[in-house]
Amino acid sequence: MKIGYYFCLLFFLFFSCDGTQTARNNTAEGRKGADSSLKWIDYRQGELPPEGYYCALDSTIKKWDIRYERIEGGCEIIPGEKQRYEQHNEKYFEQLKKQFGMGWRQRFDQEVRILDSILNNSTQIGLDHSSRISKEVKRIDALKLKTKSYPYSNKCGVMKASIVIYSENNTVKKVTDSGVGDDDQAASSWTYAYYFENGLLIFSSEIRRYHNNETNKEDQEEIQQYYVDNHLVMQIENGVMAYPKHVSIDSNDTRYQLKELRQASDIERIYKCPDL
Questions:
Q1: PROSITE patterns in the record, alphabetically (predicted)?
Q2: Which of 76, 104, 243, 276 would you label with 10, given CA atoms 20 to 30 Å apart?
């Protein structure tokens, strides 16, 4: 499983506001006269750490503004190799002690452990929600739903498209939007599907295809999003999984506006072309 950089960055921003910021404030003073060529070389060999650990470590490194380089030595342990790469670490660690004070390494390691724990918990929560939502999506797809189609085109690249509302007992369960465009203002083609449970968006799938002029081939972008109570709990973008924090939507979201679509003329308002 891959953890997206975006998720790591969110954790980095979140944790940059806690008590260890005081240590960061001492950085400039601690660096006066320091050797800027030194850095922490972390030579890794043998078994890899648990999933997500590097995300926590790298986020904490950025927060503390530590010069750091990780080298993956592979599974085979070569005697003396780690010592050869890390021979200057002690000099840099002495410099870091002046910057952050005694016990800096213990505080640093504790932050990494806390962040790693939060990341793993969030990952599991996201997986639990996505599993339940996936089952509900399959259930909705198996239903015999009433459909209402709204064909449309516009001046911002949409050549031929259709929005379909799927409902059961006047309750919208699913909305799809598929069509072809000019591959300029709009994609060459797209397939969107939005699923609702108790009136709330739970799953969003958006696939866009477009011509790549550099490779002269058709490329595809795919984003899947899982929502709980209007909060994004998991996202898969082009196969890369992430668990964003503090990302939410409301009734103004385009997908909710499509859910309330009642006449074709409303599409122009919902998909308003940008001013040229």
A1: PROKAR_LIPOPROTEIN
A2: 104
d(CA 90, CA 88): 6
Q: Is 156 in a helix, a strand, or coil?
A: coil
Give the angle subtended at the CA of 241 by the CAs of 117 and 110, to the nearest 5°.
Answer: 20
Which residue, among 153, 23, 181, 175, has the nearest Cα to 99 in the 3D structure? Answer: 23
Select from 102, 44, 36 the least CA-distant residue to 65: 36
> How far, CA to CA in Å, does 170 sit from each of 56, 89, 112, 199?
47, 67, 50, 11
Q: Which of these, 202, 200, 220, lies nearest to 211 by C-alpha position?
A: 220
Assign residue 157 a region (left: φ > 0; alpha: ψ between -120 and 50; beta: otherwise). left
**No. of helices (H) and no. of strands (E), the chain:** 9, 10
274 CB contacts (<8 Å, ≥6 apart)? 156
Question: For the chain, which residues make up each domain, given as ranges?
Answer: 5-124, 146-270
Tell me which residue of 193, 90, 73, 93 sits closest to 133, measured CA to CA: 193
Q: Give helix 53-64 / helix 104-142 axis angle, nearest 10°.
A: 130
Reading the chain (276 residues) residue by residue, the pLDDT tens digits are 444 444 454 444 444 434 343 344 444 445 555 667 899 999 988 777 766 688 788 888 888 999 999 988 887 778 888 888 889 899 999 999 999 999 999 999 988 887 777 666 666 777 788 899 999 999 999 999 999 999 999 988 999 999 999 999 999 999 999 999 998 877 899 999 999 999 999 999 999 999 888 888 889 999 999 998 898 888 999 888 777 766 889 999 999 999 999 999 999 999 988 765
